[in-house]
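User: I'm designing a mutation panel for Roadblock/LAMTOR2 domain-containing protein and want to avoid disrupting the core. Could you give me a predicted structure to guide residue selection? Please restate the sequence first so the numbering is unambiguous.

Assistant: Good idea. Sequence first, for numbering, then the predicted structure tokens:
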Amino acid sequence: MGKIMNNASASMSDRITELVKHLRNDVPDCLAAGVIDLSTGMLLTVETVDTHPPEVLDLLAAATFELFQGRNVVMIENIFKERRGVSSDRHYFQEVLVNSDNLTHLFIRMEGQDEMVSVVVCRRTVNVGMLFAQTRRVIKEHGPM
């Protein structure tokens, strides 16, 4: 486990880079990690064991936006909040787990930063409980961006 940067002295870019590095090192079976800014639709940083064409990484950012803030997702969130009497502007969906044939993708909104989403990609054989626990721990240790 590496040393976490002091939030007061590090730029946001440095803190995000450090977060992604810790996700890659601390999350079991992690093949890739990154952070997406939903307000701009940009992948801010990524660290991966493979090389990927830029258009694939751009699509990851766009797909993440759709998962969390696509029109239908926001409508569902609003219906859930209305039915439960929630009046907060906070997004209802905070975490999304997606399994493909070979990989497991975990998307988590950053605490205190609804527009920032961390993504971790692991082998499908990952222990999902450990995936959630370690990802949440690393994000919490790095605090709000």
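For picking mutation sites, this is relevant: The longest helix spans residues 54-69. The chain has one domain: 12-142.
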